[in-house]
Specification:
Strand order of the largest sheet of chain A: 6-7-8-4-9-10
Number of strands of chain B: 0
Number of helices of chain A: 7
Helix content of chain B: over 70%
Number of strands of chain A: 10
Distance between the termini of chain B: 32 Å
Shape of chain A: globular
Structural class of chain B: mainly alpha
Number of helices of chain B: 10
Order of helices and strands of chain A: EEEEHEEHHHEHEHEEH
Largest sheet of chain A: 6 strands, mixed
Largest sheet of chain B: none
Helix content of chain A: 25-40%
Radius of gyration of chain B: 22 Å
Oligomer: heterodimer
Strand content of chain B: under 5%
Radius of gyration of chain A: 18 Å
Structural class of chain A: alpha/beta
Chain lengths: 246, 245
């Protein structure tokens, strides 16, 4: 009943999850996701926004193929190169930053790596070990690693969470620059509507558990030309919609 | 410095003991060192040392590689653990002597039978240590490797083995000493050369000086291996730990 395979049009992500349940330690089964269906076109940036604990990460894990115990189908972009940034950076603590990135992307040229590290401000950290990095830096290394493989699909799990505001703002700007310059279909998960409106082309609002998509909001103005006023207006609109749903 | 004082104390006690026990029972340090020099001059010492050392390394390598593979399998696959566990308990509790004697009976008094007998003696310890390590592997890194479609060889070398390093180091440390002790018994029982064989000959002549000379020479070699090879490898493997912010 389920499969997660690369097929279909180039760069197109098609998600059809009809049902997903977890079994608790007590043996009790409870529903997590119900009828999650959405599409992302090539180069589109989608943001899944919902209350914490509603199953956002589960959706990403299903799309990444890490969780195959669900009903439905996932159609990943054609060549299927997948880059993912987990909520915790998940770097190898016994390898340097440089080795961590090269390990997953052995064919990356030194020039490509250098330009990636330049955008992400990692140039001083090539030879550091992950244990020597702050969370913000480690998150950026994880992002560099995901982009180094030149992915067709990029999955980001709360990429800006637990960073202070200035740092989150900077990483958001870097992230925008990086996905703007490549034809990557991107799906990010966040509980922060503000960030979603700044980054995404299309927002999917989730209800609390069992999560369903309560609204799909396309953002017409391109990311780079969205004004602060526009952003504030969209955020207001969407927030009132959420509270309307209870 | 403390080590030197400790060593001097050891030599003093040895010398005193030999004074009271008499040179027949326990020859003094000078006599033993002279015997080592004589054996070294004839070239016999180096030949016997080399033969024994080669057997130690062969048995150690076989036991570590096979033990790591089996331990990983048992730590990761439940059914393999269920099947392998009773075997492991049998092997852990089988006396070394039984394994050695059986190996020589079934395999003849050959080099291969001898080395395998030693390796089989060491194998279960490695399996137990590595199995513990494999059970403690970090699933979040495992998932990372799966998402980025890392090939198996890379996962083993860059993700799994570094996590097993402390367990492998523990198994290796205790393994080296266990292996060389058993190698000597194997040589005594069924092989025509090596330190164990020489000690057997000396035992028949009641030549305590020669027994101590060979034992001391071999312990020195093992100590050198420990400080010059094992410890640098451990330091290198744990380099990343010492650099926390």
């Amino acid at each position: 009943m389920n499969d997660a395979h690369p097929a279909g049009e180039t760069g197109h992500l098609k998600v059809r999850i009809t049902h997903k349940a977890f079994t608790a330690a007590s043996g009790e089964r409870f529903d997590v996701l119900r009828d999650i269906r959405f599409d992302l076109r090539q180069s589109e940036v989608g943001a899944i926004v919902g209350p914490s604990g509603c199953g956002k990460t589960t959706i990403l894990r299903i799309i990444a193929g890490l969780d195959v115990d669900f009903n439905g189908t996932i159609t990943r972009p054609l060549s299927g190169r997948l880059g993912m940034v987990f909520q915790e950076p998940r770097l190898l603590p016994w390898r340097t930053v440089d080795d961590n990135v090269r390990l997953v992307a052995p064919s990356i040229t030194p020039e490509m790596l250098a330009s990636l590290f330049e955008v992400l401000d990692l140039e001083a950290h090539y030879l550091h070990y992950p244990g020597e990095l702050s969370l913000g830096l480690a998150r950026r290394v994880a992002l560099a690693r995901a982009l180094a493989i030149d992915p067709d699909l990029l999955l980001l799990d709360e990429p800006l969470v637990s960073l202070d505001e200035a740092l989150a703002e900077r990483l958001r700007a870097q992230l925008a620059t990086l996905i703007e310059s490549r034809p990557i279909t991107t799906l990010l998960v966040t509980h922060d509507l503000q960030q979603a409106v700044r980054l995404a082309d299309r927002i999917f609002l989730l209800s609390p558990r069992p999560a369903q998509i309560v609204a799909e909001i396309p953002l017409a103005t391109p990311r780079s030309t969205r004004s602060e006023r526009e952003i504030a207006k969209i955020v207001d609109e969407v927030s009132s919609r959420i509270s309307g749903h209870g | 410095m403390v080590r030197l004082i400790s060593l001097a104390l050891f030599l003093a006690i040895w010398w005193l003991a030999s004074f009271f026990a008499g040179p027949q029972m326990l020859p003094g340090p000078v006599k033993v060192l002279t015997a080592i020099a004589v054996q070294a001059q004839s070239g016999d010492l180096f030949f016997q040392l080399g033969v024994t050392l080669a057997r130690v390394l062969a048995a150690f390598t076989i036991a570590m590689i096979a033990g790591t593979a089996i331990g990983l399998l048992m730590g990761r696959v439940k059914i393999a653990d269920r099947i392998g566990d009773p075997w492991l308990i049998v092997l852990l509790n089988l006396p070394a002597l039984v394994i050695i004697v059986l190996a020589f009976i079934w395999g003849g008094l050959t080099e291969i039978a001898g080395v395998l007998a030693v390796a089989i003696n060491k194998l279960p310890n490695t399996v137990v240590a590595v199995r513990e390590g494999a059970r403690a592997l970090d699933t979040s890194l495992d998932e990372m490797a799966r998402v980025f479609a890392l090939p198996r060889g890379k996962v083993l070398w860059h993700v799994v083995l570094p996590q097993l390093a402390p367990y492998l180091a523990a198994a290796g440390r205790s393994g080296l000493s266990l292996v060389w002790k058993i190698v000597l018994i194997v040589e005594l029982l069924g092989l025509p050369n090596g330190i164990g064989f020489q000690i057997g000959v000396a035992f028949q002549l009641f030549d305590v000086t020669l027994i101590l000379a060979y034992a001391l020479a071999f312990v020195t070699v093992i100590l050198i291996i420990e400080t010059a090879v094992v410890q640098p490898i451990e330091r290198r493997a744990s380099r990343w730990r010492n650099r926390a912010p």
